[in-house]
Structures are given as C-alpha cells and as structure tokens.
Amino acid sequence: MLLLLINSIHIEVENQEPSNQIKDEKQVYSVALISQLYRSGGLERVTQLLAQYLSQEQIKVYLITGEPTDQDYEVPENVERLVAYVENDGINEETMNEVVRVKTEEKNQLLLQYAKQYNIKLFVCQEHWALGHYSTINFLKDHNIKVIAIEHNFFMFPIHSHREHLYRYSVKTYPRLDALVCLSRVDVQLWRKVGVQNAIYIPNLLTFDPSQVQPSNLTTNNIIMVGRFNKDQKQQHLAIYMMSFLVKIYPEAVLQLIGEWTHSYFKECLKIVHVMNLTNNVVFIPFQKDIIQYYQNASVLIMTSKTEGFPMVMLEAKAFGVPVVAFDLTFCELWQEGVTTVWQGDIPKMAEKIAEILIDKNLRKQRGRESKESLQRFDNTVTVQKWVTLIKGIIDRNPDTIPKIQETEEKVTYERALEVLKQELKANDKEGYDFGFEL
C-alpha cells in the first residue's frame, strides 16, 4: 500500500514552537506551495498568483516543483523556487510501480530536508488526483509539520474520473490536515460530513482586474476554449462535435482550441476535425503564456467540462466581458451567475445557444455585461486576507482561526449540498454510490 511509504521513524522538526510560546512580531512565516508543473494549467496559475500575493504579506513563499522548463510561468519577485518532485504516473494503485513508489519516498524525504533548511513551517499540497499527494500529506503530518491541502475539483471528482480509490485515500488522509481549502461551499458541507471539520471555502484569485483590462469588443466570430487537452474531464472532442451543429446555423463561426495537448488525444481531435470537414472552422493553438489577446478577440468562451473546481479560464474570460456557454455544473461557484448553461453533453443545445449570441449583437453585449458583472462578489483583497489569516493562524497555533474564517462564509446548507450531490450522481448513472454517509 502507498501509505507504507511513510517513514515510521518520528523526527521532530526543528522549527516547531512550543504552543505556549509568545509570538515574535518579527517572525517570518515560511510557506511552501507544491506543484509538479508550473505551466499551462489552472492549478499552476493559482499557484503563481497565490505565491505572488502571499509574498507581499509578510510571508516567505517557496515554490516546490519539478525541473523548470521554458514554458513555465514567471516566478514572482521575492519567491524562491526549489526542485523536489517526481513525475507521478501512479493515477491508480495498479500503475504506481515500484520505481515511482521509491521516487515518491525520496521526494518526501527531500521535503523534510527543505523544511529544516529553510525553516518552512507549512506546506500547501494541491494535487488531489495523484497518490503521491496523500503519501506526502501523511508523511509531513507524521513529522509534525503543518499542512493545508487545496481540493481543486468537486467532491465527486474521483467518481467522475473512475478513480474511486482516491476517495478512499482522501477520507482517511484529509481529517489530519490543518485545513482543507475548498473551491465551493457545497464541497465544504460534504467534506465536513465525512469528518474533515477544518474544511473552509476560499475562492481562487482573479488573474485580471475587470476594471483594469481592455474588454473584448465582441465583434469577431471567434469561440474559444482554453485548457489542457483532457478527454475525460475537459472533453475538447465534444466542442468539435458541437461545431458540426453550429456551422449549419452560423457558418462563419471559428472555434479556437487553446492549450497544451497530449499527443494521442490531440491526434484523435485532429482526426474528428478532418472527418467532419471542419478544417476551416476549428483551429488548434498551443499553450500561450500571454492569453490576453485571445480573450480580447473572442465573442464566446465555451466549456464542455465534465467536472471543474473553480476554473481560471472562466474567471479570465469573465474579466474581459466574454459571454460564457457551458455544460451545467451546479456545484461550481462560477456557474451561479453570468453563464448560459445547457445540460451535460447536450451539444446541439450548446450550438443553438452559441448561435443565438453570435447572431444577435445586442444579446451578445448583454451576455458579456452579465459575465463581467458576475465577478463582483469575488474580491482579491478579501481572498488574500483569508489566506493570510489562515496561514498565520495555523503557524501560530491559534485555535480560533478556522472557526473565524468559517463564520465569514456565505452558507450553503448541508441539505442543499446533498441535493446537488444527488443530482450529480443521477446525471452520471452513479445513484446508490456509497460515500460512507446516508444520502
């Protein structure tokens, strides 16, 4: 079992303070954000933004990633990057071979070394889809190190992705966390139900200030879909199939698929384009560090995702006043306002809704305005302050930290969360799935 990777020898970390010690006002709060990659994805963008803002708030931030590449995001000023990662191919217990197991243990030992060398007092773990994520959390907690995890997707992600074993690991591991940061209020209720009492809601930071960017003029025929190519979650192939319906209504429409792609899935999508004779209507664009020009020249953003947490691409598109059409994801906070939704997988209806926006210029402007206005309830100043309060409170061992942050939440009742979960189970033919509590 993966958890056997955890070193059974207890090592007391030098930077731990006695609980009754008076806090030094000049104390430097040292935090490490762990992310295997540092390019192209929403999680990676979140990592960059979080590092940038926290480094301005009396917090020393370290990024712990894999080896740097030319495509990586910029490392913010006053943030130090460390390398301590292994490419984790262990998406399930069968494929996590012995080499990866050994590498994961080596990585964990190096994290412990960094904790001592740089006086890192708290680690932020984010990669909920990898077994190494749970190994690392348990390893760090066994060595008395503070750990926050960010759950970057919906509670049902393991079920959506056919990795139910990840749910088993999470319900055993997450109760040990000092805090579990969730990206929706529905998630908070469900995680608390399974014993993760330190679950709290903190939204992602805005990449762009809507008041400071030049919005799209909404005059092109461009439809954009932004994100790493992923067949099971992002489902770019469904966006291509949708275009076969849309061009019959609006032949001038052009779909720009922007993002880093895996070779096999890209070839599959390319083949669909050729078979459906859409070469003039679908354009593949590799990952772009500077995505602004694409938002400014788009008239619609589409999302065909099966599941999401708090997608940065939707935040970004909304900041530029781009109308959004997406498969309905009731649990996601960004879907609550400013999104035209269709039932999951209903690509003819999605084509119809997009055509309405492209044909009617007044409707296009209205939807763009609604999209931008929906960001008013998200404020980077408030979000950063929650993170600062959380980090400093955990490091200072303040028992009131989590309850105080929880008090600021705009509540979603457990009954509502359960209703959303049931809807998701029904939509995915998983009714009757045993989460360990009564539905």
TrEMBL record:
Residues 213-373 form the Glycosyl transferase family domain. Residues 41-204 form the Glycosyltransferase subfamily 4-like N-terminal domain. One of its GO terms (molecular function) is glycosyltransferase activity. It comes from the Eukaryota. InterPro entries: Glyco_trans_1, Glyco_trans_4-like_N. Residues 404-431 form a coiled coil. Keywords: Coiled coil, Glycosyltransferase, Transferase. This is Glycosyl transferases group. It comes from Hexamita inflata.
